[in-house]
Amino acid sequence: MRTYVLYAAALFAVVPVTLRPAARADEKKKDDETFTIKTAGFPPKGKSAKASENATIVSTAKVADDNGKVVANKKEEKRLVRVYVEKTLDVDEKANKRKKYSRAYEKAKDFEGDEAETKPYHGRTIVFEDSDGKWKLRAEGKPELSADDLKELTEEANKESDKPENLFEPTDAVKVGGKWDLKGKDVAKYFEEFKMDADTVKGHGKLVKAYKKGKQQWGTLEYVITFESELGEIKKAKGELKMTVDQAIDASTTAGKATFTITMSGKQTIEQNCQKFQADVSVKAEITIDSTEVE
């Protein structure tokens, strides 16, 4: 490190004095540039985006008796794959919310060990339509899909609509390298599946990079969230969520890429048949999402 510092100092020493003010002014201008971060929630009416979602979830559970002897040791791995083209069909312009959209699923499969489960909507187009604030789903074409076939998608869609909006965006403009805090209670509500203790949630976002793609303003955002939550028998498991998102930050497109790593682990003493056991449980999920504009 010191060698590079000395080398940079030597180069700076031979630069004509008349160049220094201009160089400093340019640097100052660049350093002072701020960005208002706004992201697009969905494609405009009549437009489509293709999404590819991949998730790998590994869970382990080990139980030892009070002598330290392992009496149970289990590991499970599950992989989920979703590929679909999403098209916005109708929008409430005043509320800036969609009223109707469709997803043409090219792939919808879950893998666990040597077993693969093909979802009922794999290869089908599903229409999502707002009805009194709740999404109602139906499949295009034949054969018809029942409410049970679409239950998973229906629950996911309605959970998404109840989540706080703009949770991850800073309220003020930020410089590259700038950070902003996330509200613990809102984060806990957004990730309600993790059963976070809202009082333990701490998180921040950071603008790592800002750059142009044509006329669009893009940025790389990083988020780190720590929390405590329930995890099976564990009442206070430690959790961490890391996200890196590369996307347009001027709301000009829904295209982008995101990676998520979620880890949760904890230990707890449990009693069974008047005997004490030490349970050690952990879960790690790695998720990637790619979104591109399509005609």
Quick gist of this model?
With 295 residues, this protein is mainly β.
Please render the helix and strand layout as text.
Blueprint: H1 2-13, H2 20-32, E1 48-65, E2 70-92, E3 97-112, E4 115-118, E5 125-131, E6 134-139, H3 151-161, E7 179-181, H4 184-190, E8 202-213, E9 216-231, E10 234-248, E11 256-272, E12 275-294
Antiparallel strand pairs: 1-2, 1-12, 2-3, 3-4, 3-5, 5-6, 7-8, 8-9, 9-10, 10-11, 11-12
Describe the fold and architecture.
The chain is mostly beta strands and 295 residues long. The chain has a single domain, classed as Lipovitellin-phosvitin complex, beta-sheet shell regions (Roll). Helix content is 15%, strand content 53%. The chain contains 4 helices and 12 strands; from the N terminus they run ααββββββαβαβββββ. It has helices at residues 2-13, 20-32, 151-161, 184-190; strands at 48-65, 70-92, 97-112, 115-118, 125-131, 134-139, 179-181, 202-213, 216-231, 234-248, 256-272, 275-294. The protein starts with a helix and ends with a strand.
